[in-house]
TrEMBL record, chain A:
<dbReference type="InterPro" id="IPR050366">
    <property type="entry name" value="BP-dependent_transpt_permease"/>
</dbReference>
<feature type="domain" description="ABC transmembrane type-1">
    <location>
        <begin position="82"/>
        <end position="271"/>
    </location>
</feature>
<feature type="transmembrane region" description="Helical">
    <location>
        <begin position="20"/>
        <end position="43"/>
    </location>
</feature>
<feature type="transmembrane region" description="Helical">
    <location>
        <begin position="249"/>
        <end position="271"/>
    </location>
</feature>
<feature type="transmembrane region" description="Helical">
    <location>
        <begin position="211"/>
        <end position="229"/>
    </location>
</feature>
<comment type="similarity">
    <text>Belongs to the binding-protein-dependent transport system permease family.</text>
</comment>
<protein>
    <submittedName>
        <fullName>Peptide/nickel transport system permease protein</fullName>
    </submittedName>
</protein>
<keyword id="KW-1003">Cell membrane</keyword>
<dbReference type="InterPro" id="IPR035906">
    <property type="entry name" value="MetI-like_sf"/>
</dbReference>
TrEMBL record, chain B:
<keyword id="KW-0472">Membrane</keyword>
<keyword id="KW-1133">Transmembrane helix</keyword>
<keyword id="KW-0812">Transmembrane</keyword>
<feature type="transmembrane region" description="Helical">
    <location>
        <begin position="281"/>
        <end position="307"/>
    </location>
</feature>
<comment type="similarity">
    <text>Belongs to the binding-protein-dependent transport system permease family.</text>
</comment>
<feature type="transmembrane region" description="Helical">
    <location>
        <begin position="235"/>
        <end position="261"/>
    </location>
</feature>
<dbReference type="InterPro" id="IPR000515">
    <property type="entry name" value="MetI-like"/>
</dbReference>
<protein>
    <submittedName>
        <fullName>Peptide/nickel transport system permease protein</fullName>
    </submittedName>
</protein>
<keyword id="KW-1003">Cell membrane</keyword>
């Protein structure tokens, strides 16, 4: 959407106060962040405490969201799983940024053969469907959560490279870069002191939305048994484990499902708000 | 346009070659040795050695790759170790089932998504618009496998309206066949609907503000004609592209959904192959799905170029 069209998001920008979506996003995410850091202290029961006497209990005063097939408290497991699920998304996104931003900077700044080679390599990576690329990376060795994080990181490197390169190319047209070049600054100085500070706002917006995809992909990988491993607690894994019992005890799957929904909606809103705040150019594109 | 198409086709061929090398190398690194799997658990080292010589597994990687690639070009995808059958027919059957799923889901997504998007754009800011945004948000907020479980629970277990999984061939009756498709299709639609609806909405809003549409209105055209004939035709450009990309995504990304609904398509075949360490089957499925994904992306680009007059008339920007 062009800048000329009136902003469709009437709630945001315009006013100098924080965008509403940012505030709502933060409000939704705050309890999740608390759970992520302090989950095992808040949880009413240890997440892996089995109790054969109270298998598949429905939600009640004793177990707020019921128990699973081993008598483990679903609420406690969801709380403790927050850290694992969010970590997968955040760590994978951080990895793809760490690999993607330097590559994108080089491709944009140097251009030429090196740039071309980087972009063509990214084309090949992007030619795989995301979940398949993840599976391909993961199927080599026995599954583990950190491997899933690396795999998701690799899956999203090309998008980061493309964005970083596009912004760098745009910045190269600016006068302050030309000025720096004429001053005889080194390439490293220009990249780190002139370009890098200017590309982080759009990258931050991109990263916040990328975390959502990473969390969902991580949950999917855990769900098919290639991410977090039992008996650890992770939302995707919990939903997978709940499947055989879904008719007798739907609460085991519903609790982590709702937690995922809150996380995804919260981060989406946060990203929209960040965009309104940092990158007003793009406000209003879907 | 022809030159553009040819360049893109050539490029696709290159990408596919690089992909096949990558897939080959990665599967070589996977645990599990083909020769000892064929020989069985109690075979002596000599037997294993003999089998691996017979299959050419003792030769350098590049020779093995060459033989594999040449086989594929002749339509021979190798033999599955676990199923002990040639892979090509199994794969084609699974691919056909996944294609049915993809085509039906995509048709529903296109009709419903474009419809909702236009509705939201025309009633922009009103209750209808907000309801459409709200519903589409729900679709993407929860992972597809969660929707799948909820749908199975509600329509399969509680209401007993639909089968919760499995597949029956069309030959055994159209109705049971269709009934098995409903829940997987609905899950896929929920996942993809949001993007199409939001995209159509935003490009529709853009187009509705152009002078072209204002002029059509000023001429006194009925509003429905303005919206459907003048505006929608121009607003569909980005939507068509995303639909084509989604088609590839469905083909590749159905691993999870096919598993939940025990739908015997490509995704489930791949997962089966990985769980049983069936290396030739893993290679073949990943290659075919990735190729289909690339092809769908290419079609998207070509469609875009074809519909977009700037590219159609000579401006060859890849």
């Amino acid at each position: 959407m062009t800048a000329a069209s009136p902003a469709p998001r009437r709630l945001s920008s315009r006013r100098s106060a924080l965008p509403v979506s940012l505030v709502v996003g933060l409000v939704l995410l705050a309890p999740l962040l608390v759970a992520a850091f302090a989950g095992s202290w808040i949880a009413p029961y240890p997440y892996d405490e089995m109790n054969i006497m109270s298998r598949l209990q429905p939600p009640g005063p004793e177990f707020w969201f019921g128990t699973d097939e081993f008598g483990r408290d679903v609420f406690s497991r969801t709380l403790v799983g927050t850290g694992s699920s969010l970590l997968m998304g955040v760590a994978a996104t951080a990895l793809s940024l760490m690999a993607g931003v330097p590559l994108g900077l080089i491709a944009g700044y140097k251009g030429g053969r090196a740039g071309e080679a980087i972009m063509r390599a990214m084309d090949v990576l992007m030619s795989f469907p995301p979940i398949l690329l993840g599976i391909l990376v993961l199927a080599v060795t026995p599954p583990a959560q950190w491997k899933a994080i690396v795999a998701i990181g690799i899956v999203y490197v090309p998008q980061v490279v493309r964005l970083a390169r596009a912004i760098t190319l745009e910045l190269m047209q600016e006068e302050f870069i030309t000025a720096a070049r004429l001053r005889g600054e080194s390439a490293a100085y220009i990249l780190f002191h002139e370009i890098l500070p200017n590309i982080w706002p759009p990258l931050a917006v991109e990263a916040s939305l990328r975390v959502v995809f990473a969390i969902l992909l991580g949950a999917s990988l855990s769900f098919i048994g290639m991410g977090a491993q039992p008996p650890s607690s992770d939302w995707g894994l919990m939903i997978a484990e709940a499947r055989p019992f879904v008719e007798q005890a739907p609460w085991i799957a519903l609790c982590p499902g709702f937690a995922l929904a809150i996380a995804v909606i919260g981060i989406n809103l946060l990203g929209d708000g960040l965009r309104a705040l940092l990158d007003p150019r793009n406000t209003g594109s879907h | 346009m022809l030159a553009y198409t040819l360049t893109r086709l050539l490029y696709l061929a290159l990408v596919l070659v690089v992909m096949s090398v990558l897939i080959f190398l990665v599967t070589q690194a996977m645990p599990g040795d083909v020769a000892s799997m064929i020989a069985g658990q109690f075979a002596s080292p000599e037997v294993v050695q003999a089998i691996s010589v017979k299959l050419g597994l003792d030769q350098p990687l590049i020779v093995q790759y060459g033989r594999w690639a040449a086989g594929i070009l002749h339509g021979d995808l190798g033999r599955s170790l676990v199923l002990e059958q040639p892979i090509a027919p199994i794969l084609m059957e699974a691919l056909a089932r996944s294609l049915v799923l993809a085509v039906v889901a995509l048709t529903v997504v296109a009709v419903a998504g474009i419809g909702l998007g236009v509705l939201a754009a025309v009633r922009r800011g009103k209750l209808t618009d907000q309801m459409v945004s709200g519903i589409s948000y729900l679709g993407i907020a929860v992972p597809d496998f969660f929707w799948a479980i909820v749908l199975v629970l509600v329509f399969g277990s509680y209401m007993k309206l639909l089968p919760t999984g499995g597949y029956t061939p069309v030959a055994e009756g159209v109705l049971p066949w269709a009934a098995h498709l409903v829940l997987p299709v609905v899950t896929l639609v929920l996942m993809l609907l949001a993007r199409i609806a939001r995209l159509t909405r935003s490009s529709m809003i853009d187009v509705l503000q152009t002078n072209y549409v204002k002029f059509a209105r000023a001429k006194g055209m009925p509003e429905s004609v303005v919206i459907l004939r003048h505006a929608l035709k121009n607003a569909l450009l980005p939507t068509i592209t995303v639909l084509a990309i989604d088609f590839g995504l469905i083909l590749g990304g159905v691993v999870v959904i096919e598993t939940i609904f025990s739908y015997p398509g490509m995704g489930r075949l791949l997962l089966f192959a990985i769980q049983r360490h069936d290396l030739p089957l893993i290679q073949a499925t990943i290659l075919v799905v990735s190729a289909a994904y690339c092809l769908a992306n290419l079609v998207a680009d070509l469609l875009y170029a074809f519909v977009n007059p700037k590219i159609r008339h000579g401006m060859r920007t890849a």
